[in-house]
Design a protein that fits this description.
The complex is a heterodimer of chains A (248) and B (310).
Chain A: E1 2-6, E2 9-11, E3 33-35, H1 37-53, E4 56-63, H2 68-77, E5 81-86, H3 93-107, E6 111-115, H4 126-134, E7 138-148, E8 151-158, E9 161-168, E10 171-175, H5 187-193, E11 198-202, H6 203-206, E12 214-220, E13 229-230, H7 234-244
Parallel strand pairs in A: 1-4, 1-6, 4-5, 5-11, 6-10, 7-10
Antiparallel strand pairs in A: 2-3, 7-8, 8-9
Helix pairs in contact in A: 2-5, 3-4
Chain B: E1 3-7, E2 10-11, E3 14-15, H1 17-29, E4 32-39, H2 43-49, E5 55-60, H3 69-83, E6 87-91, H4 94-107, E7 110-115, E8 117-118, E9 123-128, E10 133-139, E11 144-148, E12 163-167, E13 176-183, E14 196-200, H5 207-221, E15 224-227, H6 229-233, E16 254-258, H7 264-267, E17 275-280, E18 293-296, H8 299-309
Parallel strand pairs in B: 1-4, 1-6, 4-5, 5-12, 6-11, 7-11, 14-15, 14-16, 16-17, 17-18
Antiparallel strand pairs in B: 2-3, 8-9, 9-10
The chains are: A alpha/beta (248), B alpha/beta (310).
The complex binds flavin-adenine dinucleotide and adenosine monophosphate (AMP).
The site of adenosine monophosphate has 21 residues of chain A, from helix 1, strand 4, helix 3, strand 6 and helix 4.
Chain lengths: 248, 310
């Protein structure tokens, strides 16, 4: 089986996020950058499925040459090769999906594994858009993935419970947090990753024009909350909830 | 003038509260609002939807019996085109997030997801970076797809007469099929609807902590139960209880955070609550920064005392 896994370079989830002075972007100087955690789970799942069914794991990132770092990290985990599609500046999810569509048409994977959302933009769109562009089925928010023949059975985290769906391959799958726990890259893995093939492509080469449908107009800090109070005991808490907050 | 199509979400034979908040968001833009009910045997949902919007369209088809993204997106996009909708709306629930990007792709429409405010007909605000940042986005296409964070909009109130119309759309076969649904059964109010939410974290020490400490407090207050990611991951409680950036967003009148640290990813899902109470033995825990009232103490002492005295 051939797996295509997308990896986005994002700010560390532990980093303190600050907005720049003109509100056009966040400050990334000195901020640690990581693979989007959901994408890392996707790479791990593909590696496990490859261990079971054989095949190849290709990782794809779209961004500046800085994203090579995330591709190498994914290859250090065990992915076989990487593709960087170079693009500076903002992209909306539709553009991302169109780029991945082109790569998928070239690579012909059996499964595209993506994160349910990128933890920077929190859009939760690209994978579903891609599935529609390709005319493929999707199984989002995967908790468990099993492949049998030309089908994948996916248990999904849905509202109110767990849903099981069957999708014919090729399909797009997005990961939820509990699908697996990604492995750490081993030292030999890191050494090996440096020599694994990494292809670079431009939008022109892929024949995609970035058509921006959603424009970011500005960023602001959320309204701040006034500080609360520490109460000494349960009696005071109940009194405050009753008389001050009128919450009970 | 704008023409809005609001997709109904329903479960167990009744309309989801998130749909009512979504109607309010659409009304903020102004223009005609049409409700859309997709599924099989959904007349009663359409009647309920009709209490809130003047026109309801039903697409009733055996191929739509289960809420699968591919056929549903096809039906929604077809009605949107047929009705000349400028905006297509859904709550930013798991279902809305699953289906609506496909609708946007099908219509080549721009999409704003999980919006928290309507600025104008084409501009919306939405939380990003786990709620650390509020972005303003402009959707530049004629047709716009929007999903709505339900906690940020009041529910629409029932209005007048409605006109219900059935339409047929051709649904292609897809390689997606429904197998089963393993429902988390509970007599408690739904997490996203509840007036009071009691959430627990790793401080509960194990699933018994939820049974022995959290549940009795929830019983006392008629509350729903939520949880941090850590305890969902550990399998102490169902995944569906996770509150946060990547879980559910809640905004009850009263939120108890018991033995959870208040990581930014958790806070992203509950900071809109009207009154937040934190119980944690570590006075440095970040949850105290968002709490209205905090008690620095052992939860195994505080919660039983609270239950007794309430
Ligand atoms: C991509 C990503 C997405 C995430 N999404 C979410 C999300 O949606 N929701 C979410 O919740 N998390 C999310 N997280 C995880 C989040 O970062 C935290 O790891 C998690 O919320 C911590 O859970 P906790 O507060 O239960 O555990 P801990 O951080 O371990 O906190 C336990 C707390 O209990 C207190 N405690 C212990 N014993 C007692 C006692 N006897 N009495 C009183 N207090 C006690 C401790 O002082 C401590 O503050 C996400 C993380 C990532 C990377
Ligand atoms: N620039 C990018 N490069 C690679 N993958 C991406 C990029 N942007 C989004 N993705 C993928 O799309 C998923 C969903 O992203 P989003 O719709 O932006 O929340 C992410 O988890 C990634 O797998």
């Amino acid at each position: 089986m051939k797996f295509l896994c997308t990896v986005k370079r994002v700010t560390d989830y532990e980093a303190k996020i600050r907005i720049n002075s003109d509100g056009s972007d966040i400050v990334t100087d000195g901020v640690n950058m990581i693979i989007n955690p959901f994408d890392e789970i996707g790479v791990e799942e593909a590696l496990r499925l490859k261990e079971k069914h054989g095949g190849e794991v290709v990782v794809l990132s779209i961004g500046t040459s800085d994203s090579v770092q995330q591709l190498r990290s994914a290859m250090a985990m065990g992915a076989d090769r990487g593709i960087l599609v170079k693009n500076e500046g903002d992209m909306d999810s539709a553009t991302v999906a169109k780029i991945i569509q082109k790569v998928a048409e070239d690579e012909q994977p059996d499964m595209i594994m993506m994160g349910k959302q990128a933890i920077d933009g929190d859009s939760n769109q690209a994978a579903q858009m891609l599935a529609e562009y390709l005319g493929w089925p999707q199984a989002t928010y995967a908790f468990k993935v099993e492949v049998e023949g030309t089908d994948a059975t996916v248990v999904r985290e849905a509202d109110g419970g767990m849903e099981t769906v069957k999708v014919g391959l090729p399909a797009v799958i997005t990961t939820d947090l509990r699908l697996n726990e990604p492995r750490y890259a081993s030292l030999p893995g890191i050494m090996k990753a440096k020599r694994k093939p990494l292809a670079e492509k431009t939008l022109q080469e892929l024949g995609v024009t970035a058509t921006t449908r959603v424009v970011m107009k500005g960023l602001e800090a959320p309204p701040s909350k006034s500080a609360g109070q520490i109460v000494p005991d349960v009696d005071t808490l109940i009194e405050k909830l009753r008389n001050e907050a009128k919450a009970i | 003038m704008s023409k809005h199509l609001v997709v109904a979400e329903y479960a167990g034979g009744s309309l989801h509260g998130s749909t009512l908040s979504t109607i309010t968001a659409a009304q903020k833009v102004g223009g005609d609002v049409i409700g859309l009910v997709v599924g099989q045997g959904v007349d009663s949902i359409a009647t309920e939807m009709g209490k809130y919007v003047p026109n309801v369209v039903i697409v009733d088809d055996a191929k739509l019996a289960n809420r699968l993204a591919q056929p549903w997106a096809q039906a929604i996009a077809a009605v949107a085109q047929n009705k000349g909708a400028t905006h297509i709306w859904h709550g930013a629930t798991t279902a809305g997030k699953d289906i609506m990007p496909r609708v946007a792709a099908r219509l080549e429409a721009g999409m704003a997801s999980d919006i928290s405010a309507v600025v104008s007909e084409n501009t919306f605000k939405r939380p990003m970076w786990a709620g650390n940042v509020i972005g303003t986005v402009e959707v530049t296409t004629d047709t716009k797809v929007v999903t709505v964070r339900p906690t940020e909009f009041d529910r629409a109130t029932a209005g007048s007469e409605t006109n219900i119309e059935k339409v047929e759309t051709a649904i292609d076969d897809s390689r997606m099929s429904f197998v089963s649904f393993d429902e988390v059964k509970s007599d408690r109010p739904a997490l996203t609807d509840a007036d009071v939410v009691i959430s627990g974290g790793r401080g509960l020490k194990g699933p018994e902590g939820f049974t022995n400490v959290i549940e009795p407090l929830a019983d006392k207050l008629g509350a729903a139960i939520g949880a941090s990611r850590a305890v969902c991951d550990a399998g102490w409680v169902p995944n569906d209880w996770q509150v946060g950036q990547t879980g559910k967003v809640v905004a009850p009148n009263l939120y108890f955070a018991v033995g959870l640290s208040g990581a930014i990813q958790h806070v992203a899902g509950m900071k809109g609550s009207k009154c937040i109470v934190a119980i944690n033995k570590d006075e440095e825990a970040p949850i105290f920064q968002v709490a209205d009232y905090g008690i620095v103490a052992d939860l195994f002492d505080v919660v039983p005392e609270l239950i007794e005295k309430l």
